[in-house]
Amino acid sequence: MNYTNSSVGSGSRTGRRAFEFGRTYVVRPKGKHQATIIWLHGLGDNGSSWSQLLESLPLPNIKWICPTAPTRPVALLGGFPCAAWFDVGELSEDCPDDFEGLDSSAAHIANLLSTEPADIKLGIGGFSMGAATALYSATCFALGKYGNGNPYPVNLMTIIGLSGWLPGARNVRNKIQGSHEAARRAASLPIFLCHGLCDEVVPHKYGERSNHALSLAGFQNLAFKSYDGLGHYTVPKEMDEVCNWLNARLGL
C-alpha cells in the first residue's frame, strides 16, 4: 500500500518538494477489533521490522498500522537521503524544528486513522524519531490543529513514545495554556514515555526534558519510565509495560 503525496491533508502552501511515503504494513487483530494504533519507526528504518515485533505482542484486540517514512535528505546525516518522518539536525534546544515535515507526517498518520470505524479507540506510538512524531501529533490533537493552522481531524486516546523527544518543546506550554479547550484535551490524553539510561543516540536527558515540557503544558495523564542499562533499542520488559499500559488505558 503506497501513499504518494506526503502533504495530503497537511495544507502545505510552500513550494517545497512533497516526499513520497513508503509501504504501510498492517497487523490485523487476532480477536475482536477494539483499538487501532499507528506505530512509527525510527530514522532509516521501515514499517516492516516493527510490524513483526508488534504482531508477537499479547494484544489480540489491537490493529497495528506501521507506515514507512519518506526518503528525504537528513541534515543530521550531512544531507544523505534516509527514511525520516521529518528533517533533523543535531538534538539541541537551539536547533530549529522542521514543522513542515512534522505537519506532513502528522497529517499522513491522521489520514490513516481517519478511515477506522467510529467505535474504535485510536492511538499513536513510535520509537526514536517515530516517538518524536507521535508526541508532535499529541500536541496537534490538544491544540486541535497542525502547526500550519489546519484542523487536526482525529480523536486520540493514547500516545506511546520510546527513546524519543518532543519537537517544539519550548513553545508547547504557551500554545496549550492559551486555550481552555486545548488544556482540556491535553489533560485527558494518556501518554507513556520510556527511555534507556544508557541511550547514546537520543540521550536520556531529552526524554526527561520532554516529560517535563509535557507536564508543564498540562498533559496530566503522563508516565515516564527509565530503564537501567538500556541503550537506543527496546527490550521485552519495556514492551511488556507498553502492553500493560495499553490494556489499562484502552480498557482492552
UniProtKB/TrEMBL annotation:
It holds the Pfam family Abhydrolase_2. Residues 25-248 form the Phospholipase/carboxylesterase/thioesterase domain. It comes from the Eukaryota. Coiled coil: none annotated. This is Alpha/beta-hydrolase superfamily protein. It comes from Forsythia ovata.
